[in-house]
Structure formats: structure tokens, C-alpha cells
Write a structure and sequence with these properties.
Order of helices and strands: HEHEHEHEHEHEHEHEEHEHHH
Distance between the termini: 53 Å
Length: 302
């Protein structure tokens, strides 16, 4: 453990040691999304004093603990991930029944936000045990805070869109009709396909957060229709984990109805005819609808 983390651990015990940390409690602990320095003092104290740690990946958690000088024997680490969460919850509750304190950590960020943890929390609460959250890092709020999203109606967290092309297009259609800002997550091997789908949203602004809090962090805001070209410009832009903030739609420029109409007309009519009819039906600018139609046709290409 480095001298700096040794001091942090000492400060953590000073700051949180006098607080009440009840037994028979599940502690939901947020951990850094990339930068180790983003751990909270309270989280360090709790990770040091609980009786066991339930974690999405025991190997990842062990590495994290060692970085802070908090080595734990393997017997104190319980694997609780998306494939065994229901059964593993029973093991956690057995420990709570014995008066133990158990912390739950996902691999990064706040548990149960597009990560395992929600089923565990629900089971523990239903069994009558206390759940105590420790707030901290979250890729969702990190991206929103740096996006410049100004909508007064807040934002909607969607997470990962479907991986299949047709289902993803339907999801994007729904996003086009959502006037509030929307937060999406995506993995590097799927970001290109997502960008192609989102291009149908035309000039609607989108902020791309890549490798947030890490050495090669990148945050850019551009029109949705420009996202595929931006990703293709440099290979590095397709690496790392992504958080995307689709900005709120300006009232006068929302393309939701036009996109919906085009989705119906394009399979039946030539492109120019579909655009002309869509403009007459919705009253939206023909050039904007033409760009949307081109994006939709491009996404349909094999």
C-alpha cells in the first residue's frame, strides 16, 4: 500500500469510526469507475470493518482491496453476480442472520445501476434486514454533470439498448419521441452499431463520455448524425466503456413524429415520396426529414 493510501485509510477511520455501523446490515458500496482516488473515506472504513464482502467479481474486488491495503482472505469474499444473484442472496442473508455486516460491491460504480445488486437488495429488504447505501462514483451522474444538458425536466436513464439490430432501431424510435435527456451505456464492441442507429436522430445533440475518470478520458458533444464519422475518424475513439447523454429535444425541432412516420412509409414508398408525405403529415422541414430517411436507409443496409 502506498503512503498516500495509508494516510487515506487512517483518515477514513478518523472520519467514520465514530459513526454507527449496525450489525445484520447489507452495506451497498459505490466504488471508483476508473480512478482509484475516487473512493470515499466512509467506503474505505466500511470495507475495512465488515465481516464479509459480496462482489460481482471476487478477483476484481480483491485487486481493489489490495490497492487500498485492505487484503481479505478468500473465505470473506462471496461471488454475487447476474448469473447466481438469487441463490447467492441466501448465503448473504445467512450471514446477516448471524449478526454479520456484509458489504456489496459491483465491479465499478454504484451497484444495481445496470450492474448486479438489485435482486440482492430486494431479497435482503424483504427478509427484514437493513440496507445501508454508501454513495459515491457513478458513470451516469458523472457524464450528465459534464454534458451541459440544460433540460428542466431532468433525464431518463435507459442503460444498454438491445443488441439485435431491429430491436435497437425500435428503441431508437422510442428515444426520438422522448423530449427529455436520455443516458445510455455501451461497450466498445457495440459502440459502432449504436452510433449508426442513433444517427437517425439527426441534429439532436449527444455527449459521448469515453473512459470517464481514467487517463485517456474523452468527452465530446456533437450532432447524433455525426457520431459514426466521429468514431471512425480515430481508432482509439472506439476503445473503452461509453456513457452517452442524448440531450433534451428542442420543442420546435423534435424529430420524433417525423421519424415515426418515415418508419411506416419508407418500406412502402420511394425515399423522396416518403419524405414528401412525411413533411405534409407532420409539418416538419423536408430537408431534416430527408436526412433522417437517408440515415434509416443506411441502417437497413446489410
Amino acid at each position: 500500500m502506498s503512503a498516500s493510501f495509508a494516510k487515506a485509510l487512517e483518515a477514513a477511520h478518523d472520519a467514520a469510526g465514530s459513526q454507527n455501523h449496525p450489525a445484520s446490515t447489507l452495506y451497498v458500496v459505490a466504488t471508483p469507475i476508473g480512478n482509484l482516488a475516487d473512493i470515499s473515506l466512509r467506503a474505505l472504513h466500511v470495507l475495512a470493518c465488515v465481516d464479509a464482502l459480496a462482489c460481482e467479481d471476487t478477483r476484481h474486488t480483491q485487486q481493489l482491496l489490495r490497492a487500498y491495503g485492505l487484503d481479505r482472505p478468500g473465505s470473506q469474499l462471496l461471488a454475487v453476480h447476474q448469473h447466481n444473484e438469487a441463490e447467492a442472496a441466501q448465503n448473504v442473508m445467512a450471514r446477516l442472520a448471524q449478526g454479520e455486516r456484509v458489504a456489496y460491491l459491483s465491479d465499478a460504480g454504484t451497484p444495481a445501476i445496470s450492474d448486479p445488486g438489485a435482486r440482492l437488495v430486494a431479497a435482503v429488504r424483504q427478509a427484514g434486514y437493513r440496507v445501508l447505501p454508501l454513495p459515491g462514483a457513478s458513470s451516469v451522474t458523472t457524464a450528465v454533470s459534464a454534458s451541459g444538458m440544460t433540460g428542466e425536466d431532468g433525464f431518463v436513464f435507459v442503460g444498454f439498448l438491445p443488441s439485435k439490430s431491429a430491436e435497437r432501431q425500435q428503441a431508437v424510435l422510442a428515444l426520438a419521441q422522448e423530449s427529455r435527456a436520455v443516458v445510455l451505456l455501451e461497450a466498445p464492441h457495440r459502440i459502432e452499431a449504436l452510433a449508426q442507429a442513433l444517427a437517425a436522430l439527426g441534429e439532436r445533440r449527444i455527449t459521448v463520455g469515453r473512459e470517464l475518470t481514467k487517463q485517456f478520458e474523452q468527452i465530446e458533444t456533437l450532432a447524433a448524425q455525426d457520431l459514426p464519422a466521429w468514431l471512425a475518424e480515430k481508432p482509439d475513439r472506439q476503445r473503452g466503456e461509453f456513457v452517452l447523454v442524448l440531450h433534451d429535444a428542442p420543442v420546435a425541432a423534435s424529430a420524433g413524429e417525423g421519424l415515426r412516420v418515415l418508419q411506416v412509409l419508407l418500406p412502402e414508398l420511394p425515399l423522396k415520396t416518403a419524405v414528401k408525405l412525411a413533411a405534409e403529415i407532420t409539418g416538419e422541414p423536408k430537408n431534416q426529414l430527408y436526412d433522417l430517411a437517408l440515415s434509416l436507409k443506411k441502417n437497413e443496409a446489410p
